[in-house]
Amino acid sequence: MILLDGKKTSADIKEEIALEVAELKRNEQKVPHLAAIIVGNNGASVTYVNAKVKACERVGFESTLIRLPENISEEDLLNEIEVLNVDNDIDGFIVQLPLPDHIDEQKVLMAVDPDKDVDGFHPTNVGKMALNLPTFISATPFGILELLERYNIETSGKNVVVIGRSHIVGSPMSILLSQKRKVGNATVTLTHSRTKNLSQITREADIIIAALGIPEFLKADMVKQDAVIIDVGITRLADASKKSGYRLVGDVAFNEVAEKASHITPVPGGVGPMTIAMLLKNTLLANKRRA
Ligand code: GUN
Known about the structure:
Layout: E1 2-3, H1 6-26, E2 33-39, H2 43-59, E3 62-68, H3 74-86, E4 92-95, H4 105-111, H5 123-130, H6 139-150, E5 159-163, H7 170-178, E6 187-191, H8 198-202, E7 207-210, E8 228-231, E9 235-238, E10 246-249, H9 254-258, E11 263-264, H10 271-290
Parallel strand pairs: 1-11, 2-3, 2-4, 5-6, 5-7, 7-8, 8-11
Antiparallel strand pairs: 9-10
Bound molecules: guanine.
């Protein structure tokens, strides 16, 4: 079994990005600047956004973190977005999800200038992605493509089963892997909560992407021998033995599935770190496009 080490791979990517930033600096060109908006105090969201900002600093990007109160009005949030849209120093920005219930998420995502939408969530960019046109591919599916590529995992002609149809992961992942692209050309089955006989389907898979958000959902008896397993889940489970008070658990029952898998991502240290690296990559791309 080969562990798909997202921590190491993301460190490699960040090093490559840092070299490009150093080159920009040498040529006295503008370095990439990422801004992130976070609304409220959701513990996981704050952790993720802080990690994104810290990653910017590590590669030499500029970063701006905008923290807004939980009770901010939709109108005020849309105004904050417009400020970033017209700020020439900002190359790209994200609005961390989820948002409080009183704010219309779709309205917010549509307010982001598609040229600065480094999360790739704007309908214009989702449409371009679906048409295989140049755009910002959302960080999580982009990170999975990169991990598969860097570990030389063949996808062409393979049976891929995606579990979960979220707009952030499952849906784009199924589209991308079925496309005619370097990591793609797979026969993809997108499964979800209404799928019948799921185990029968997953047992036919050469590659399984578990992105449904149920801890340890995928068990060894659902997996064929030597399958490639990508675990996108990160659920915080209470654990008094940990300093933080919780441990992170994926959507895959790691120990039993690892015995059958040819390749598998750990949680933490698999897909998660890749997501941050690809957000940086998108921000660098936004900077180049604007230059
Ligand atoms: N919440 C969970 N994943 C993401 C992501 O990739 N981007 C943003 N903005 N919010 C998220």
